[in-house]
């Protein structure tokens, strides 16, 4: 049988099979290659000044060093066999299999070790990594959920257990909230990445600057670490469920990865730092989104942006998190989290779309969410409210006429809007259901209100432009 013909073009290897393949056939393609990759596998000096090599693949850079179908829908199992000098540590996706000595043992420092790792669960190509360095490996004292280790430069070894103190509680919280941890271990690696953290399945990589002091950084008292450490560790660990195990079907569905990780980091803050800290976290997220929207007003489900790096924006992160928060407030915790668990269990190890999420939440809550998704996921923008009001007393009853206008461009948002009145020192709550961009309703109150506020519990992603008596 003649060997298959192949041809190369920039970033593409085309293989002509020796016979026609049909759906369901198993094909084995072996590609022998060598060289120094220009991207994807990053060679750099660590904080100790020692050489290192670290996989850094997002969004579609893995094909620079691993022949692959470089798209999040092409999930696959992976195994690594890595030969490295004996002074090097090697960590990769999946379960550690073995190390063996290779090469001439005299002199000893010339010998190599061969490391083997195997990931038996399908993961997206951008999460397939190895990390080779001379760093320290520290085992976490908390091994309750999975084998948890830290791979860090010697310079960071004293602080790392404290800096990563949110990791084990994150694993426990997300396991209890969604489903058991999906992988064989979790390594937190301080290495080379262009991102604030990269969620590679079971082998998360953080930048070399992770533990550097930031002036005026807030400290969260629960873990006694800077806020950014707590949030980024929880964010990347949340990705192990959302993004890695359940992976977006298309790049337009990226919010199913980044919006989820952003919101679950917020849920972690809510659990361990309290409601006030969570409200601050969500308000900060809203402000980052508002600033972004002033420059680019796009749907979360963005099919127009072809620069994949440009998708790493507050639309997918912060607005995505707010969409989940609004769904939680609308559906209630019981239905919301049941829907998320059903969504996760249905797609674990595979891919999912925004419609898959909508279907799961509708089934769990028995709510029709088509209009909500049409406006918040497939539409752009957010509501900008202007409220005007006047009152008239008659027979000990005060009638308050409320005029709620929406000033944003585009269509109206029809989400119910909570309104709070202060009447005789007491709070009265009512809800206005908009019928368009301008809605007028009359509300009966026991007396003239002294103050009015819109959505005081922050259940909606909105701006309040003005309230006019």
Brief overview:
With 469 residues, the protein is of the alpha+beta class.
Your description of this structure?
The protein is built from 9 helices and 24 strands. A hairpin with a 7-residue loop joins strand 10 and strand 11 (147-152). The chain folds into 3 domains: 24-238, Zincin-like (2-Layer Sandwich); 247-376, Neutral Protease Domain 2 (Neutral Protease, domain 2), CATH 1.10.390; 384-468, Immunoglobulin-like (Sandwich). The strands form 8 sheets. A 4-stranded antiparallel sheet has the order 3-4-9-6, with no helix packed on it. Strands 10-11-12-13 form a 4-stranded mixed sheet, with no helix packed on it. The protein has a 4-stranded mixed sheet with strand order 22-19-18-24, with no helix packed on it. Helix 2 packs across helix 3 (227-238), helix 4 (255-273) runs antiparallel to helix 5 and helix 4 crosses helix 6 (315-331). With 469 residues, the protein is α+β, with helices and mostly antiparallel strands.
